[in-house]
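Technical appendix A lists one of the benchmark inputs used to test multi-chain prediction within the project. The record comprises two sequence entries:
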Amino acid sequence: MKTLLFLALVLFSGFSAGIVHGLTNLAIVEPFLDNAIAIENQNLFASGEAEDTPSFWIEYDSYRTWQKGGQVLAGAILGTSVGALFGIVYAYSRNSLPDGHSVKKTLTLASIMWATLFLIPFIKYPANPPTVGDPETVVLRSIMYLGFIALSGFGALGFYKVYKKLLHQKKILAFVGYAAYITIIFVLMPPNPDEISASMEMVNGFRTMSLVAVTVFWVANAIILGLLWQKYNPDKKLETKVS
Amino acid sequence: MSYSNQISISKSGVPILAVAILAVIFAFGLFVVGYDQGHIFSVIMGEKAFDEMLIHELTHDMRHAAGFPCH
């Protein structure tokens, strides 16, 4: 495999998909964030921690504009990061994925990684907008969230190894095994300790848009990497002719 | 009459160096967007970085949107 080409394709596809993710968030998630932060501001005014003055709003608008720009930059960084992981897993698993066009392979892998690294953890620990979450518990929640992702991801990797070893008719057992494993983890892991006092309509709307936007990222990353892999094929064929 | 037997051997491995580089990028990017609370800038700014939390504030919206616990 051509190392530099492989790195370039993986990083470019992750970066590009991250930009798409950031822009999607700006379009569909940001309105919910603005509403949630507006509630936080009202709480600040009510508690006397801030005053509802023109200077407050000038500073706030400038700050939020900066944060919204950061949304796209953070999308690029997170996209490159998750895209790097996707590239590693794809490089090792590409010969086990369904035959055919590279996009078919990358979409297959992306659907597995999306489910195990995002969807299942998301069901246990869904995204929350500002106003939800006690700062005192953020370290615990971070450990639980990352821990669940790691347990799900490594569990999927372990059952993939089992899948490879099983005979054709018994391969279904690997899926059953992962389902049983993640169900046990799901039940054993503690719930999010924070109560939600904000409107559930707003929280659920935010969660739905968050789910859609992350899904857009995984689809975009798979399509971009698949198309680039098909076109540039970084697989280096070292052919030795023995006469 | 002479015979010539040819065997083609194709090899396509995954470069370990590339995997190592990608693994570092994955860990660093995940930390920056999902978990930094001033740690990275504290190398330059000291304790002040933990009060200002510049990266946290900059990545705030993506943290929430991507599902990371933010605050």
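The first helix of chain A runs from residue 3 to 47. Chain A touches chain B through 61 residues (CB under 8 Å). Comparable benchmark entries are summarised in Table A2.
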